[in-house]
Amino acid sequence: MSIILYSLCGAETARPFSPHCWKTVMALRHKGLDFVESPQAFTEIPKVEGGVSKIVPILKDGDTIVSDSFDIALYLEATYPDRPSLFGGEGGMVLSRFVESYGLTMLHMAVTKIAINDIHAMLGPVDQAYFRESREQRLGKPLEDFIATRDAEIAAFPEKFATLRHLLKRQAYLGGESPLFADYILFGALQWLRVTTGSIHLPSGDPVAGWFDRLLDLYDGHARKVA
After folding, report:
1. Is the pLDDT reported for residue 1 higher than 90?
2. Which of 20, 21, 91, 224 is 20 to 30 A removed from 215 (C-alpha atoms)?
């Protein structure tokens, strides 16, 4: 039985955009596992697999269902130990948790502020109503208010990658010569930005942009094929 990955999309199923789902897509490709991706609209997710989770990614592997991108990565590592490792050992798991925290605290809110109106435009009418209500409640202001600060957020965005940029001066990936799950965690944030806005908002020649391009080219350019 094929592995099924439930992910997030807007009105176009060919443009899944969740950063957490992209982590899982890259992890599955890294492991060399065959899977079927099933993109879902925001309001359809609670109906998936009997309502097992209100958020994606959701992975179904035979009779096993796992949600949360990091838990899925741990599951894949434990279940398919003969495939390429996502962590390179216990230490890599712990360090990936640090990278996850960095991404959530430093990048995700910035991407939200840059892309929020683009995401709203990608959605169907029912999801637009859900997205507007839930995000305005969470952020405390109308979506339109973020247009006024968008240019400032974009201008400040490259500096958030100063740590990664410093590391990439001496190695190709966070994982060293080849990527690990830690790379896919940060890749997910930039792929989210790329799919929703059409740009990663980093200058040409930036080492982080080069790292992102290398990841886009992996696995027969799977991630790059998403417009």
Report:
1. no
2. 91
User: Per this entry, what is the length of the chain?
Assistant: 227
Report the C-alpha gap between 131 and 31 in whole angstroms: 33
Alpha-carbon gap, residue 18 to 5, rounded angstroms: 12
Q: Count of CB atoms within 10 A of residue 52's CB?
A: 14
Helix (H) or strand (E) holding 64: strand 64-67
Domains located in the chain, CATH noted: 3-79 (3.40.30.10), 90-221 (1.20.1050.10)
Copy the structure tokens of residue 222.
Answer: 């799977």
- Chain centroid offset of residue 29 CA: 14
Q: Is 50 left (phi over 0), alpha (psi -120 to 50) or beta?
A: left
Verdict on whether the full-model pTM lies above 0.70 = yes
